[in-house]
Protein: AI-2E family transporter
Amino acid sequence: MTSGDTPPREPPLLPRPARSAAAWSAVILLVVAVVAGLVALAFVLRAVTAPLAIAILGSALLHPLYGRLLRWSVPRSWAAGLTCVALVALIAGTVWVLVRTISDNAAKIGAALTDAAGTLRDKYGGGGDPAAEASDGLHELGGRLGESIANGVVDGVGIAVQVVSGGVLVLALTFFLLRDGHELPGVVRVVTPRRHRDTADRILRRSFLAVAGYMRGTTIIALIDATFIAIGLLVLDVPGAPGLAALVFVGAYVPYIGAFLSGLLAVLVAFADGGLGKALGALGVVLAVQLIEGTFLQPGIQSRTVALHPAVVMGAVVAGGAVAGILGALLAVPVVAVLVSALAVVRDAPVARETG
Structure:
């Protein structure tokens, strides 16, 4: 071998497919680690991140009303303020109806459970019988319901303070997001490197459209769910049907699960008012509405507003609930929609070239 010859290269330890798989695995693990870190940071700072996330959802939902006020030549500050006032009025009205419905029927539910326990005990007797054990459980549940409500009032004071302070923060953030939201694309372009500005701008705009579409579609579904359940409860002559329908409307913002869980209260109210027959009728109404939602509403409406498969939506809700409870279940689908939108923009973005 002469001095000008190149020494032979040693063969790689791993074949090319294995090296490619290892590289992609490293990228995936890095992305998962970053996402997990961000989720952990958001959970630690939830006193700020949770109101901010809710304010983003609220501003996305209320933006059409805000835009209409602007088209009527209302100044931005006034338009944002009036939109927030409308939001407060809607929330206050819904909470008032819910509180009235629950407070008016809590005693009836407890009494009905106690009566059901007595009926089971008289019919099946005691002594280790499963029905008798069930009656004891019902009796205990009915007897403790009023006590739990009374004790909950004391604990509820501290919770109420947190809810009010968080609500004020959400309202303030919603106001500023509505009033100054048009300046966010400019801010993003300033803080983003020049060759990535167009991509960052598209990610921001498409993410907002995804969140707005999700909130619009969820609101439509919530209205339909609440309307159907209200009609069914009125036909069954269940007391407090408007309040129960309002609870279903609020619960429907957690896809698939929320409306069903909130509908269970309607079943309890029906049981307290008319016994097992009326309760079964209310349960049938709730299950029928859930069947309509899962079969037609979620796939039909959300597929047009958010390009997510129903299985992805259900998985996101369950995962969000496991990580952060009700708030996580509420925010899971919008977060996934934003991630999917951002990935779509990055995938379709042209390759940036350095100019020298």
